[in-house]
Design goal:
Helix 1 packs antiparallel against helix 3 and helix 2 packs across helix 3. The longest helix has 27 residues. The protein is mainly α.
């Protein structure tokens, strides 16, 4: 599978995009991302390519959220 690199103009734009991808995984798998990530990290779920991508997107989501929260706290 060939990966595509996308550049965003802001962390907020990236957060919106990754949130949309997470929503697709959640609808397909009938599980929210937080529960999925817990089960995946516990080794309950396989290392299927879909799960690896979902886990990576969720890690990216968490990092972006943290970055945005830090920026707001710094600005306040």
């Amino acid at each position: 599978m060939r990966k595509q690199t996308i550049q965003y103009t802001s962390p907020l734009d990236a957060l919106v995009a990754v949130t949309k991808r997470l929503s697709i995984y959640e609808n397909q798998q009938k599980m929210d991302s937080e529960e999925f990530f817990y089960q995946y990290n516990q080794g309950i779920l396989s290392d299927d390519a879909l799960f690896i991508e979902w886990a990576n997107d969720y890690r990216h989501y968490l990092a972006l959220r943290q970055e945005i929260e830090q920026r707001f706290n710094y600005a306040a």
